[in-house]
# Entry
Amino acid sequence: AQTVTQSQPEMSVQEAETVTLSCTYDTSENNYYLFWYKQPPSRQMILVIRQEAYKQQNATENRFSVNFQKAAKSFSLKISDSQLGDTAMYFCAFTRYYNQGGKLIFGQGTELSVKP
Amino acid sequence: GAVVSQHPSRVICKSGTSVKIECRSLDFQATTMFWYRQFPKQSLMLMATSNEGSKATYEQGVEKDKFLINHASLTLSTLTVTSAHPEDSSFYICSAPNWKQETQYFGPGTRLLVL
# Structure
C-alpha cells in the first residue's frame, strides 16, 4: 500500500525568506502523480503544484517549486520569498490516478507560519 | 481552474436528525467524487468514493448506513449523515478529479455541528 509521510508537523519562516517542506512516499508503482495542497484558515483546499512521476523536470509555479527525487521517493516543496498569505497547512498527496480513479493519499500535513 | 461547490457551508442540527450535504462539479463532469472528514489540525480522512451510476465504495471502519452517498448525475454527489449524533460533528470535504487536467479539486467544505 502507498503511504505518504510529512515529518515536520510545524514550521515557521520569516517573511521574504525561503522555506522547504519535506515529503516522502512509498510505492512500488512507476507511474503516479504527486501534489502539494495548501489549506489556509478558511479550510479551502488549494492546489499549489503537481508533478508527474514520468517527468524528470521539477515542477515550478511562480514562488513555489519542488525537488522531486524519484529514486529516493522524496517530493519537497520550496517556497521562495515567503508571504504572510502563505500561512497555512500544507499537505503532500500521492495518486496513481487512472488506476485508482483519482484517489489521493495524503500526508499528515505541515503547519507553516510566516512571521512578519 | 475547475470549480467544485459544496452546500451548505455550515449546518447545526439536533441529535437524531439527518443532514444532507451536496457536492457539485461546476464546469466539468465527474464520474467519481470523494468524501473526506477532517478534524482540526489533522489530515483529510477518506470516508468513501462516490461513483456515478453505481454504489459508493466505503473505507474500512466507515458505516455505510450512517453515511449515505448518492451520485445522482455526472456533476452531483450527496452525503447524508443519518441520525446524526454529537460525535458526527466535524468538517466534511468533497473532491472531484478532473481527468482532462489530471488534477483533483476540492469543495470549500461543510462544518457540521450536532447538538
User: Anything to note?
Assistant: Chain A has a mean pLDDT of 94. The CA atoms of residues 87 and 99 of chain A lie 34 Å apart. Chain A is about 0% helix and 50% strand.
